[in-house]
Amino acid sequence: MVEEEGQYTIKCRYALALKKLIFKNKDVNRAPDSPSFPGIDDSYSKISSSTGIRKATISDIITAKSEMKTYTLYRILNTLGYSFKQFGETFDSITEQELNKYIKALAKTKDTKTKNK
Fold first, then answer.
1. What molecular functions are annotated in GO for this chain (predicted)?
2. Is this structure's pTM higher than 0.85?
């Protein structure tokens, strides 16, 4: 059980790092004084279209429902316009407090969906 919890925490950290990069692109793309960056994807649909990865798979990665392969991470980072170094910096900058908040938010979403069934 402890090992499974550790694996889930790692998936959540990966998910949160990717989510931060996606939101960083959203901020850039939607800034009123920002020039247009047509090559910067900022949504699951755009990432899916650019990478060929199913939108549901991207969603499952961001919600820590599935693990991703290194090649999948590479394709997502490439379409977002980030390097592994930038991803690593984002990954390492996530605090335990941020991670715990994200895990709780995922659990809350999961509970809400279960109750609505």
1. DNA binding
2. no
